[in-house]
Amino acid sequence: MTLAAHDMTQTIGTLQFGDVAFDLEKTNLYGILEPHGHMTWWIELFPPGEDDYIMFNALTFDGVFSPNGLSGRSCSGDAIELDLYEHTVRVNGEDRFLDTVDMTFGDWDTVGQCIPIRGRGLVQDEHGSGPIPYAFDALLPFEGLNIFETSREEAHRFLTTHLGRRPVTLKFETAPSGLRAMFSGQF
Q: 40: which of 54, 71, 90, 150 is 20 to 30 A away, CA to CA?
């Protein structure tokens, strides 16, 4: 099912911590090109309210510069191996850390500009009651790619080198930290 064809009265996914399951209210995916040349991917899974959510911050996959390259990719490991302390997790109103993650992307939908993702793992024990299992299954709409503190030349080079002939729009915005390039369109 594409996001465009998805009935928004139905859930866009679920997130579960322990025995408590939530329908997701908002999900998204976006990419940021970092100064060292790697694209980082940001995934946000938000049920209603502010007490329970997961944000995967700055995931990297070698050689993936466009969201369609995430199709079939997996990410699996523990807190030390994958530096899971970078991610933001909130369980029952408390900030926590991930202990493990095992997630896999589905196939990129060129029409709906979205990708399904499914995963599970453990949230670290905080109060001696043991780790909390979590699971999610979501459809992620793509929000775009960004390069911060860049130049017009660098942004055009990225477009030509990594995005090729895709119908992509490039816009620039001046921010206090420097020029920001924003890529949107059909990926």
A: 90
DSSP result, 88-120: EEEETTEEE-EEEEEEEE---BTTTTEEEEEEE
Q: Tokens for 90, please give them.
A: 């909130």
How many Cβ atoms from other residues are within 10 Å of residue 172's Cβ?
A: 13
Q: How many CB atoms lie within 10 A of CB 62?
A: 6
Q: Where do we find the tokens 């929000």?
A: 143
Query: From the centroid of its chain, how far is CA 84?
Result: 14
Q: Using CA of residue 85, residue 86, residue 87, residue 90, what is the dihedral sign?
A: positive
pLDDT in tens, 26-61: 999 999 998 888 899 999 999 999 999 999 998 999
What DSSP character marks residue 65? -
Give residue for tokens 């920001």. Answer: 180
Q: Tell me the one-letter amino acid at 46.
A: F
Query: Kind of pairing, strands 94-96 and 53-60?
Result: unpaired
Beta-carbon contacts of 56 under 8 Å, excluding residues fewer than 6 positions away, are 41, 42, 43, 44, 87, 101
The whole model's pTM is what?
0.89
Whole-angstrom CA distances from 13 to 6, 34, 72, 117, 123 are 11, 29, 18, 9, 19
